[in-house]
Specification:
The chain has three domains: 175 residues; 88 residues, Beta Barrel (Elongation Factor Tu (Ef-tu), domain 3); 160 residues, Rossmann fold (3-Layer(aba) Sandwich), CATH 3.40.50.80. The chain is built from 17 helices and 17 strands. It has a seven-stranded antiparallel β-sheet with strand order 10-5-6-9-8-7-11. α17 links the parallel β16 and β17. α1 runs antiparallel to α4 and α6 packs antiparallel against α8. 27% of the residues are buried. Its EC number is 1.6.3.1. InterPro entries: Cyt_b245_heavy_chain, FAD-bd_8, FAD-bd_FR_type, Fe3_Rdtase_TM_dom, Fe_red_NAD-bd_6, FNR_nucleotide-bd, RBOH/FRE, Riboflavin_synthase-like_b-brl. It is an enzyme of class 1 (oxidoreductase).
Length: 532
């Protein structure tokens, strides 16, 4: 039983170690997202589950690793207790009942690599928990990069050759009768030395020989023509992981070559509520609205890098692109201090521009996200919570340049913030887009709803500059069911894309409401991006 469980769990581990790398091939996923000919909308929506798929494979690896280790502990006892003198090549122990066999598995190559892999897997799993990712992202980042060590040990782990199979089944079938050993020992009638030995493969089996019952079939006896020969199994793990591992390594090499040239930072803008906007330029950089990039600043950290959603994409008329980042951790704090002359600055309505010599910054990407589909629906609902507005900022910037070339004909933009200062991050953008649509006689193209969960200082937003937003500012939190029912009523029998980037509470509520039916024949397709 232990051998069966260990082999079965090893097959499951091979499959999941193969699949867990595929969601990390970001260039491949970005290509599939952007190619409507290769992947349909349903297929592209499945790609949004890549992170969930990666986590599922990781959890499966952990579970079946524990099962695999437990089964091999049972195998160690079986190898020791079932020592067979007839088949010495199959024995892993030196003698029957060898107590040291329990420790032998940690000395051999499979056992030693297995112990190290379990330790590496334990570090990766514990550091991947939500609490550690939020409190100390550096620990998660560095321990997760131990996957390369894990795969190298995995390829060595299967080269031990502890389990073997028989190569000469025709010459020595299982349970056959060995005339050189067993037959002569079990003869009860003496025979002269010059008397020829009978061929019992064709002659009837004599009744005067005491031969065990399993060796006799239909009154005939199977004779072994040679000793059994055994050979170690060829490791199948190589077939499973070599392809995805090579694909991932080639992609990482491509990403390194693509991002080895630093970008040119054109401006840095300090926004209220510890938000920093970085605008930059890079040769031959192209991106679609909703995509994200990975920033790497060697002066902040030699190895650490972080993803940020593009809030401004390059177009045919301008090559500038930008990101908004919220200063919430060690990396963002050090990055802000390098970009700004003073880390503590008070900002008014207009952001403060800082001019200085900026550090080297490398950009890897762009990569795909679910928000790329927001322009491919006739009607879309974009729900943002706080800094979760960044994916939709690039969509709004794109619509500001021109909206007629896209399928989107109506956009519901809902933004929920705790304080009034947060709305000023993109207040100018919202006002410009609103005025542009009014001038083009399409005021119904975008429906802006701003919700303020805290009412302190609400009078500060009153002003002529943001007059278009003041009438759309609501107090409290949205009543999501009534809101979606009203949208469904105005868009009967249509498919509406729902996009959310914000707290998990809002995301779960919208996901539940999107899957529920309504009386207007409207179908909601839910898409989500997570902060973590």
């Amino acid at each position: 039983l232990g051998l069966c469980v260990s082999r079965a769990s090893a097959s499951v581990l091979n499959l999941n170690c193969c699949l867990v790398l595929l969601p990390m091939c970001r260039v491949l996923l970005a290509f599939l997202r952007g190619s409507q000919k290769v992947a349909s909308r349903k297929t592209r929506r499945l790609l949004d589950k890549s992170k969930t798929f990666h986590v599922t494979c990781g959890v499966t690896i952990c579970i079946f690793s524990v099962l695999h280790v437990a089964a091999h502990l049972v195998n160690a006892l079986n190898f020791s207790e079932n020592y067979n003198e007839d088949f010495l090549a199959l024995n892993a122990a030196n003698y029957r009942g060898e107590v040291s066999q329990l420790y032998l598995m940690s000395v051999l190559v499979p056992g030693l690599t297995g112990v190290i892999m379990v330790l590496v897997l334990f570090l990766m799993c514990t550091a991947s928990t939500y609490a550690i990712r939020v409190s100390n992202y550096d620990v998660f980042w560095y321990t997760h990069n131990l996957f390369f060590v894990f795969y190298m040990l995995l390829m060595l782990h299967v080269s031990g050759g502890v389990l073997k199979y028989q190569t000469n089944l025709e010459e020595h079938p299982p349970g056959c009768f060995n005339p050189n050993k067993t037959l002569r020992q079990n003869m009860t009638v003496p025979r002269a030395f010059d008397q020829p030995f009978p061929d019992y493969t064709t002659e009837p089996f004599p009744e005067d020989l005491a031969v065990p019952e399993p060796f006799v079939q239909n009154n005939f006896m199977r004779i072994c023509s040679e000793e059994p020969k055994f050979q170690s199994h060829f490791p199948e793990t190589w077939f499973w992981i070599s392809g995805p591992l090579c694909l991932y390594c080639v992609e990482r090499l491509y990403r390194y070559i693509r991002s080895n040239k630093p970008v040119t930072i054109t401006s840095v803008i300090s926004h209220p509520s510890n938000v920093l906007e970085v605008r930059m330029m890079k040769d031959d950089f192209k991106a679609r609205p909703g995509q994200y990039v990975i920033l790497h600043c060697p002066r902040v950290s030699a190895l650490e890098s972080h993803p940020f959603t593009l809030t401004m994409c390059p177009t045919d008329t301008k090559a500038t692109f930008g990101v908004h980042l919220k200063v919430v951790g060690d990396w963002t704090e050090r990055f802000r201090d390098l970009l700004l002359l003073h880390s503590n600055q008070d900002t008014e309505i207009l952001p403060i521009f800082q001019q200085r010599r900026y550090p080297k910054l490398y950009v890897d990407g762009p990569f795909g996200s679910p928000f790329e589909e927001s322009l491919n629906y006739e009607v879309s609902i974009c729900v943002a919570g706080g800094i979760g507005v960044t994916p939709f900022a690039s969509v709004l910037n794109t619509l500001l340049d021109g909206w007629k070339c896209y399928k989107l004909r109506r956009l519901y933009f809902i933004w929920v913030c705790r304080d009034i200062e947060s709305f000023r991050w993109f207040a100018d953008l919202l006002c410009m887009l609103h005025n542009k649509l009014w001038q083009e006689n399409r005021p119904d193209y975008i429906n802006i709803q701003l919700y303020l969960s805290q009412t302190d200082g609400i009078q500060k937003i009153i002003g002529e500059k943001y007059q278009a937003l003041n009438s759309r500012l609501l107090l409290g939190r949205p009543r999501w069911k009534l809101l979606l029912d009203e949208i469904a009523k105005c868009n009967r029998r249509k498919t509406i894309g729902v996009f959310c980037c914000g707290p998990s509470k809002i995301s779960k509520m919208l996901h539940k409401l999107s899957n529920s039916s309504n009386s207007y024949g409207t179908r909601f397709e839910y898409n989500k991006e997570s902060f973590s």
